[in-house]
Structure formats: structure tokens, C-alpha cells
Design brief:
Arc Repressor Mutant, subunit A, 4 domains, 520 residues, alpha+beta, Rossmann fold, Serine Threonine Protein Phosphatase 5, Tetratricopeptide repeat
Amino acid sequence: MTFQFEDFLLDPERRELRRAETFLALEPQVFDLLLYLVRNRERVVTRDNLIDAIWNGRVVSESTLTSRINAARRAVNDNGEEQRLIRTIARKGLRFVGEVTELSPAATHAAPGKPAASALAGLPLPDRPAIAVLPFINLSGEAEQDYFSDGISEDIITALSKLRWFFVIARNSSFIYKGRTVHLRQVAEELGVRYVVEGSVRKDGDRVRITAQLNDVATGSHVWAERYDRELADVFAVQDEITEAIVAAIEPQLYAAESFRAQRKPPDSMDAWDLLMRALSHYWRVTRQDHVAAQALLEKAIALDPNYGKALGLLGTSYMFTAHMGWMDMANAIPVAERAARAAIRADDEDAWAHNALGHVNLFARRFEDSLAEFETALRLNPNFALAQGYYGLALGYCGRWRDADEAARRAIRLSPRDPYAPVYFGIAAFARYLGRDYEEAIRLAQESLRQRSDFVGGHRVLTAAAGMAGQTEIARAALKELQRTQPNVSLAWIAEFMPIKLATDREHYLEGFRRAGLT
């Protein structure tokens, strides 16, 4: 049964929220929370009810619960002040108050003249073998072990991504299918791939059982499948074996020619890897609170293994992202992030995250050529690294190469078409178009960024400036109001000081857009 309210469709079977024909990406917990509220709309739902239903009764901080409620409101274009759909009942809980219509599956998916698939469906296949690795299913019976099975999937994605002759969908887009029963053909159409990998993980004490299967969606056949029963300490070897088997099955001649072996330096401590995977589960949620949690977990991982390159690289990247969003003072973030990034490279010069982190540091330290070189190294090591591709676009834009920046941002979107970071990539493309004086396209891209994530500061910045330059006064004023809400410290002086725009003409051009919008 699918639920319709206003122009939204909430589909529990497909685990999709759509507005008109547009798919809205939601974190799994946010989707579950919204669905629970809609299903229980006839009563007030207490916070304990939510914790029992969404987190299986585990201890959850007030800030985590609040952030998921706020995310559910943003997804349906609601907020804590208006409370048009999700209403807070003082000292009691929450209630979904929108008018809901229950639709049959046929009515939902077979509307005359309109395809049921999202706006991103039917992506063309690239000129390389295109593959998506779905999140491996956790069969341990404990939801808190999800991060472990997610980590297995993530490492396989990373290993495949390093192969220049594969096109590998980024983790964040593959993981939108977590917990959903969905036909592999739908996955292939929505992500634009031919091959899909799926599997499961059962962790029991010091042993782990991993199954993996490679599917050719074009022919409907299973190309390869295997089951591994190993000691927990052998999990990294299993990941390599799975990756090798996938490569050998898809491109045997390339496998034979290159004698493939995943270039990955495993951590010295299994506990350090465990902490890294917990940190990544927070990092990809793209909120201030989750980045703080990720940083704390990464510090613990590094304390256990001071030479863990990926943990150091991720820590440096996280600090730079929080500073770029205005959540942390840039002057404080740069030295901490630089120490982590350089330590990461010393520990493992072949790790793309390490060079991605140093690329960020160099960019905001205004070492522009060094920044471009580090992002290029990260992409040489991992050509399918969507995050590095997007931020390479940002660096190109700040260096005045707006056409190259636009292309890089669009490559990032194609590598991960259903990504929580996609609003960032759309914002980078919008900034590139702004520099190219294409204000209408900059507005469109910025609005798409904010449609996907209404609290994304970068989208508000570009929309404000572009609308200001385009003379769209109402849009500019509304965008400036939202920008000041999401980044209270924003000012002309802040933009001039902390946004590392290399060319004085580009910087003045950007500031002029804000002036016309009314920023002082």
C-alpha cells in the first residue's frame, strides 16, 4: 500500500519517496521514521515509540532523534515552525496531520502516460563495463552489526573503483537500495549499469560467512557466485578474492594481462577497521552532528593504528568539509586537517582518501596548483571516486576554469546519481555556471541542489548570488534569508576571506551577486 499526501508518494515496498515524478533520496532511518508517522497518523507517537520502532530500542541521543525528525520534515517541504504535515504535540510527541490517501500498487505504478521510474531512470551505459555493488545483507540478527556488512561492501566498491577499465557506481548511490526488495533490472536502469553484485554477511564471534553473487542484468544470468567461511581476521583476504573473481568473470582477458590484485594496505588492527566503518556510516549522512561523531571514531581508530592511511585521510577530509560548510572555524580546521592528510600520505601513498584530504587542505590554504595535483593523484588512484571528482570540480572552479569545473561536477553526479552528496555536486556545477555568466542555469542547478537538500549552505550561496546578478529580486531575497538562516555568520567579508577564489575578477564578480541580493 502506497501513501499519497499533497504531491508526495511514499512507497513502503520500493522504499521510495517521490514528489510528482521526482525521486527524493532519504537516509534509511529518515524514511522509516516518516513511514512510521504516516502509518500511525491517527494517534500521537511518542519519542519512545520512535526509538522502539526505528532503532529497536537502542539508546539514541536527543540530538540524533531531533536531526532525523528535522530531516523527515525537510524531505516533505515542512519545518518546525510551519508544522504543516508533522506536528509536535507539546510534552507528548509527534503526529502526522496531513491528509493521506492509500493507493493500491497498480494505481501507484501504472499512472496513464507517466513512467513509474524516477527522473534518473534509464541512464545510458558508459563505454566501460559498468557495475554496482549493493550493500551486503546483514544476517547476524543484530541491527547494530549493519556497519560491518556495509564495510565489506564498501571495501569491495573501493577495490573495484581503482580499476580504470571499470565504471563503478559510488557507494552512496548503491546504498539507497539498502533494506529494499527491488528487482535488479530496476537497479540497473536507475544507476545505468549492466552488472550488479549482491551478497550477505553473517558474523558469529570470531568467524564470518560471506556470500557474493555477480549478476549480468542484460542477460538475466548469474555470472559467478561463491561462499566463504573464514576467521574474522581473514576478512580482508576474502574481500580481495571477491574482487578478483568479479574482475575475472567480467573481463578475463584484462584480468590475465594485468595479474590483478587490489592495491590496498589493510590496517594493523581489526578494531581500527571496525571503528573506520562506524565512522563512515556517520560521514555519509552529511550532517554536522554526524561529522562530529565520525571524527571521534576516527581519532579512536588512529589511536589504535597510527599508520592507518584511510582513517587519517577521512579525518582530514571531514575537518575540511565541516569548515567549508561554516560549521567550524577554517583557521582551526586547516592545521588539524593538514597534519592528518600528510600523515595519511606517509602511511599509504596509494590511498586516494589521503590525497583527497590534502587536496582540500591545499585548496583552502590557497595553494591552488598543489590542490589540483592532489585531486588528480586521488583520481589516478581511484578513477571512480565521486567525492574527489566533485571537489576537483570545486578546485577547478575556484581556479577560474569554470568549463572544466562543470564537467568534473557532472562526472561526479554520473558516478553517483543517487547520492546524499549529490546536492554538493549540483552546487559546484551551479558555481561553475555562475562564473561563466550563465545565471539562469546556475539558478536551476542551485535550486536542484536545494530541492535534494534544503539545508545545503553552498546551494543557498550560489542561488543568492545568481539570482542577484539575474535581477530576480524575489528569489534573491528569499535565498539570502535562507542562507543567513543556515549560515548565520555569512557576510561579504566572510566570503572574501574564506572562499578561496584565485582570480580577483572572479571574486569581485561573486561578491557583486551577493551585494545585489542585499548581503552586507
